[in-house]
Amino acid sequence: MGSRKENSTYTSNEKFIIECNLTYAVNKIGGRWKILIISKLEKGKMRFGELKKEFPYITERMLTLQLRALEHDGLVKRTVYAEVPPRVEYELTEMAMAFGPIFQQLSEWGGKHRKLRDA
Question: What is the pLDDT of the chain when averaged over all its residues?
């Protein structure tokens, strides 16, 4: 992958955006699948196959990329067990568990907004 110019508009915008705490947080959970993955993992540890069954329309590659990004950002912990066949479990970190009440409020807001829009 090529490198970006240090003085490009994209680089300048990125630096500005991540200085805002709210935008930084949304950037960490942004995307089509991250919130759904975090939501499923709130119930406890899950294996890759279990997550894949929860999201039949996500490709294995996209699920892997999303889990890696969440792990990189410290929101998901990946545990590999030295077994044959290998067993890998994913679970939320304490930092990610803090999203629970926030997601609940966001879900309630979404339901209210949807009802108003559909009325």
Answer: 89
Task: List C-alpha distances in Å: 65 to 18, 33, 37, 57, 68.
Answer: 21, 10, 12, 15, 5
At residue 43, φ and ψ (nearest 5 deg) are -80, -15
pLDDT tens by residue, 60-113: 999 999 999 999 999 999 999 998 888 999 999 999 999 999 999 999 999 999
Using CA atoms, how far residue 100 sits from 14, 23, 31, 43, 79, in Å, is 27, 18, 18, 11, 22
Tokens, residue 71: 């792990």
Q: How many CB atoms lie within 10 A of CB 38?
A: 20
Give me the count of residues in the chain.
Answer: 119
Question: Residue 50 has which token pair?
Answer: 């279990």
Q: Residue 102 burial (CB < 10 Å; 0-12/13-18/19+)? A: exposed
